[in-house]
Fold Pyridoxamine 5'-phosphate oxidase N-terminal domain-containing protein.
Amino acid sequence: MPYGFLDIAVTPSVRAAQAKMGANHLWEGFKKDRTFDAFTPGEAAFIARRDSFYMATVSETGWPYVQHRGGPPGFLKVVNEKMLAFADYRGNRQYISVGNLAADSRVALILMDYASRVRLKIYAHVEVAPLDTDPAFTERIVDPGYRAKPERILLLHLVAFDWNCPQHITPRFTEAEIATAIQPLRDRLAVLEAENVELRARLAARKDD
């Protein structure tokens, strides 16, 4: 069976680099039942927790352009096992990614979970859909609580994905993750402060006696 993601990523020049670095033997006969061309519930759950991702497009001149996309957790929607979608909100109005997609629909995404040191890589083709193409679908994709202006819907038709190893991922934590982690400390501190107030009151009462 084909590998899927590596079948796309490993080109003749990549094979030459592997051979030069003595790593080609690591990938010889690596063909396994790993097409990775359909999301499972595991990928869907991972994607639903993300509040950002990195997306690379390519211009007509061959230059890559990497853009950070962010929003509320789950703004990148899993429509089905073969498709993702997200609302393209107005930003600095350079429209570099949108322009690149008009010339070449291919994108590469990296979704990061820094806290768990996990990353998901995705190859896809993008279809640009106006907001008024399917109002019901647009309502499903656009987050009404997010204070930004949506300009279009981007549909990502999955080609292949792969999970990456945790090497060299420095753990980082969001404000919400930190708040959750230290909440037990806050709770304990509140208890100790209440006990301290009570003890001070008892000491003051004894002095009055």
Observations:
- The chain has a mean pLDDT of 91.
